[in-house]
Design goal:
single chain
Length: 103
């Protein structure tokens, strides 16, 4: 029976796979799987945190919008009151001038 000509190649591949006393590809793949699972867990936690942050931003924007609308309403009311007082004082002043000219 002839000896296999690829014995050295097979041994080299086995050493690369199993490590021959050192860390081999099998161990590397196992480590990569563990790190991948840990990264997935971290991503889930980050996703939850980002969702909470987005929700708080939405709530803050809603509050700011409501506050802006309230300020706008107050400003319009103040403007209307100012217009009414301006017209009233103008008419009172005009009436005073007319009364002085007549009397």
């Amino acid at each position: 029976m002839e000896k296999c000509t690829q014995v050295k190649t097979i041994e080299r591949i086995e050493n690369a796979l199993y490590g021959n006393g050192q860390k081999g590809l099998v161990k590397d793949v196992e480590i990569i799987k563990i790190e991948n699972m840990e990264m997935k867990d971290d991503l889930k936690k980050m996703s939850t945190s980002i969702s909470a942050i987005a929700k708080s931003f939405t709530e803050r924007d809603a509050i700011e919008g409501a506050t802006a609308n309230a300020k706008e309403g107050r400003n319009k009311a103040i403007q209307k009151v100012g217009t009414v007082f301006g017209i009233a004082f103008g008419l009172i002043g005009l009436a005073c001038v007319i009364l002085e000219k007549i009397g």
